[in-house]
Specification:
The chain has 13 helices and 13 strands. The strands form two sheets. Strands 1, 2, 3, 4, 6, 7, 8, 9, 12 and 13 form a ten-stranded mixed beta sheet that branches. Strands 5-10-11 form a three-stranded mixed beta sheet. Helix 1 links the parallel strand 1 and strand 2. The two termini are 22 Å apart.
């Protein structure tokens, strides 16, 4: 039995991979979808075999905690809405309008700024209910990192974090909680990993990207954002994929990271754990794509295996992965 905890962003694909791997090998994986903040806390406390976070730790933070991290999958964070009469993908927002909604400056859906972006959509005179995460969240980190880049006012007043002082709104626990709130409340807007929007048949928005094009969240637009990522030159695999250039890039794209200790007290268990992640790299891509996640390119997987060989070891210093 492997025990992991953390990000809710990749939970749908981790659950699918764990089930498929169990059928192949018999190994069970217990993954607690508690948010990135909880995953980082639990791996530091050594109460789980691995943690998962969508907010990468810096190389200095990893060294201080005796950890290494690596990306396992990429995907998109998507604003989702529940507005009577507005279909999925129909509503268009630009960075300024999205930031102003979450700052509380735009309070109704038929606000002039939103209506100008959507001349062909009849928007209701309905109050906007903002839904955000209540727990420490890597999805929040990715979403606020994006707003921080595109809105000087957001940068000044709120900034980037797994948990921030939200100007307005109500909190839901996990991607699941945000999705449930948005589905229940007419006039609401929240943000979830795209698999949750798909699984719950939620209405996502189109966003204007850095190149000035309105794009929809799809695996192709996530891949477009991920293409320019320079993993080879990223210390500790620290990489942020928000607001990437490219005509087809989805602007709120992110990776999800696995955190493990450099020194493994139980090398046999650690080897089993790395074998699972290796299986995900080798065999997991079709399942990831079914859920609209972007699998890691083979070249990045090989970089990760190289890190395993040199940095993860038994207490006696013997490599766990050879």
């Amino acid at each position: 039995m492997l025990n992991g905890a953390g990000a809710t962003f990749p939970y749908p694909i981790y659950a699918k991979w764990a089930d498929a791997y169990n059928k192949v090998t018999g190994l069970k994986l217990n993954y607690q979808s508690i948010g990135s903040g909880g995953g980082i806390s639990q791996i530091k406390a050594k109460t789980v075999d691995f943690g998962a976070s969508d907010a990468p730790l810096t190389a200095d933070e990893l060294d201080e905690a005796g950890l290494v991290q690596f990306p396992l999958v990429m995907g998109g964070v998507v604003p989702v809405v529940s507005i009577d009469g507005v279909a999925a993908g129909q509503l268009k927002l630009d960075p300024a309008a999205l930031a102003d909604v979450f700052l509380g400056k735009i309070q109704k859906w038929n606000d002039k700024k939103i209506q100008e972006l959507n001349p062909d959509v009849k928007l209701p005179d309905t109050e906007i209910s903002v839904v955000h995460r209540a727990d420490g969240s890597g999805t929040t980190w990715i979403f606020t990192n994006y707003l921080d880049k595109v809105s000087p006012e957001w940068h000044e007043k709120v900034g980037t974090g797994k948990a921030v002082e939200w100007p307005i709104g109500i909190g839901g626990k996990g991607n699941e909680g945000v999705a449930a709130y948005v589905q229940r409340v007419n006039g609401s807007i929240g943000y979830v990993e795209f698999a949750y929007a798909l699984q719950n048949a939620m209405a996502h928005v189109q966003l204007k990207n850095k190149d000035g094009h309105f794009v929809a969240p799809t695996i192709e637009s996530f891949q477009a954002a991920a293409e320019s990522a320079g993993w080879k030159s990223a210390p500790g695999f620290y990489m942020v994929l928000t607001e990437q250039p490219g005509a087809g890039s989805w602007p709120i794209t992110g990776a999800s990271f696995i955190l493990v200790h450099k020194e493994q007290a139980d090398p046999a268990l650690a080897k089993q754990m790395l074998e699972f992640f290796d299986w995900c790299f080798v065999h997991g891509a079709p399942m990831a794509k079914e859920l609209q996640y972007v699998p890691m390119p083979d070249a990045v997987a090989e970089l990760v295996r190289g890190m395993w060989r040199t940095q993860i070891a038994s207490p006696a210093g013997a490599p766990v992965w050879q």
